[in-house]
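Summarise what follows for lecture notes:
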Amino acid sequence: MKFQIDKIPRGWCDKDMILFHACFQCLVDFVEKEKPETLVDWQGTGPEALEAWEEMLACYGWYKHVRKDPWANDSYDVDQDWLERLVKVRSFMWS
């Protein structure tokens, strides 16, 4: 599967922002292209998996719909919190 980071601008971009957007692009691709809700029985897989799926959806919703300005300097701490939440559930990103 081709991997493209949609929110990286042309020209210079600091590596910390590339890393941030790459992680969330993986999540976006996972949710939108792999459609794991149609392939995985998150409830039947166990409570830990269901909690992870719900956390993935929360991270996805925040990144796609709540986070407005991808380059706002004042959002770095909030971005970091969400990135840490995503990293905690990465082992469940399979379908």
Q: What stands out?
A: DSSP finds three helices and no strands in the chain.
